[in-house]
Amino acid sequence: MVRIVTDSVADLPKEYIEKYDITVVPLDVIIEGKTYKDGIDISTDVIYEKIKNGVLPKTSQVTPHDFVEVFDRLSKDGDEVLAVLISSKLSGTYNSALMAKNEMKDRKIEVIDSKSVTLGQGLLVIEAAKMAKDGKSLGEIKEKIEEKAEKIEHLIIFDTLEYVYKGGRISKVQYMLSNVLNLKIIMTLKNGELIVKDKVRGRKKAIKWIIDYINSNNLDLNNKLVGINHANDEEYLKELKSASTERFSPSETVVSHVGCAVATYSGLSAVGIYFERED
Questions:
Q1: What CA–CA distance (Å, rounded) separates 43 from 113?
Q2: Does domain 152-276 have CATH number 3.10.290.30?
Q3: Given a cut of 70, is residue 162 above it in pLDDT?
Q4: Which helix or strand (DSSP H or E) is residue 64 part of?
Q5: pTM of the shown model
Q6: Which of 43, 154, 158, 188 could form a disulfide with 120 if both were Cys (CB 3.0 to 4.6 A apart)?
C-alpha cells in the first residue's frame, strides 16, 4: 500500500484528508517568539487578528526529524510512502524530506517537489491519493504526479503583496512595481517561484481577467479537477466560483480556506483558482 504525505501548505479540505487517508505534516508558525503547529494549535482567525494589529507571523519549514517520525510510522509495517510537498523554491520543507528519506534507506519512500503552493499543490496530492486508493504502484504514482506538477496553473488574486514580500517570497522589485493603491495583483507560479502576472483595478475586473485569461489561452476546465480557495474572504471565493462555473463544468471542484502558513503571506484578502493545463 502507498501512503500519501503532504505538508500543511497544501490547504486540503478536511473531508479530502479523511476520505483518502492523507497524512499532513504541519509547518511551524511563529508569532512573537512562540511557535505553533499550523492547523493544530493555532487557527487562521488568530493569524488575521495578528496581522490587523500589525504583528507579522513567520513560518518555519518542517524539520527532517518531523519527517523521519512520520515516514517511520507509515512505513514500519511494510507500506510505501510518497510525499508531495511545497515548491522547493518557496520552502526548505522538500529538502528536509529528502534528508529524512536518506536516513531511511531500508524503506520505500519517494519525495516530490510539487513546484506548487496552496491548493495547486493540494490538487496534486489528491490525484496521488486517488491513484494510491486505486492500487497504483509507488513508481506509477510518482511518475504521473511529477508529470502533472509541470502543468499546474495557479491564478491568485491578492489585495496586497506586502506580506509575501516581507516573508521573503518575492523580490523587492516585484513588490515595488505592484504596490499601487487599489490595484488587485494577479500572481502565478513559474518553475516553482511566485511571479506577478498582471495588475488590475477592482475585484470584479480581477475575476474577469482570470476568466478572459483562461478563455484566450484555450485552457479547458471542463471535466477537470479544479481547486478554488480563499483567505479571509468567502464572498470573493463565491464570486470567483460563480464566474468559473458559468463558463466551465469541472468534473470536481475542491473548495478550501487557506491554512495558517499560507495566511501569513496572503494577508487579509486573497482568492485563487488552480487546475491542470493540457500542454
A1: 26
A2: no
A3: no
A4: helix 64-75
A5: 0.94
A6: 154
